[in-house]
Amino acid sequence: MLLITSSINLKIPQGCSDAVLVKNLYLSCDPYMRLRMSFNVDGYNFTSFPLDSPIEGLGVARVVDSSHPDFKEGDLVSGQTFWEDYSLLKSPKGLFKIQQHNDVPLSYYTGILGTPGATAYFGFHEACSPKPGETIFVSAASGAVGLLVGQFAKLMGCYVVGSAGSKDMVDLLKNKLGFDDAFNYKEEADLAATLKRYGQTCKFLDAVLINMRLHGRIAACGMISQYNSTEGPESLKNLFLIVTKKVRIQGFSVYSYYGMYEKFVETTLALLKQAKITYVEDIADGLESAPAAMIGLFSGRNVGKQVVAVARE
Fold it and tell me: Which of 20, 121, 201, 222 could form a disulfide with 211 if both were Cys (CB 3.0 to 4.6 A apart)?
């Protein structure tokens, strides 16, 4: 790890209009960021991280100075920032003002009330078009998105099965988060048979397709198992089952739903206050802990949403 230090004037530079200077409080570690560390990102809706510059990512921050009419000193905001103590955001288009923060920890706006939460909410309710009584399978179910998808599904009256990478995570899904059942995929030699055993109808996707029911739906927001692959994308063997079982696979980006963001926050905040959903965070302290926290996502070390606390308030 290379640590670079520099000083910054905590005032917006003269002539820099519509900018916001923020003190970063919490940073979000998200799997998609690994893709931006590659030089070849053709086909994606984002670019590679520029060399010799701080990593860009989602976070929660407090406004220190502003020349933007929508933000003032002291405002709490969530959105795109950089992995550093202070950031000058010259184009804060994706910045949201946090209106209600006394009832929940600020770090929640990197997760359940931020992009991962919105991904779970819109992916389940909009992309999946679920119905009460249906069976839902959630892969990576103990991660920031999966643990919420399972709980949204239970609130709708669905039967929910999740997969995770350790016994402790499986216990968390069944005993704390309300999943009907869960299994450790690392202990299963035949994933297709495993899914069939649990009444279910990459490696997972092939197994899922075998067990899909007629007119089933699959929502895909990412493929973390592929991000560090040195052998190229995995091929599918059972793709024709999409035709015979009339399966709909819907890839989606949460940014397509940001026009509904305020409704999502209002709904999810109410569920939190009513204790109808449980949220789990894995917080690493200090900016220096961010690289290890990020790497840990790909070995399944984190339980719940991985967050880096740069400065607690």
Answer: 201
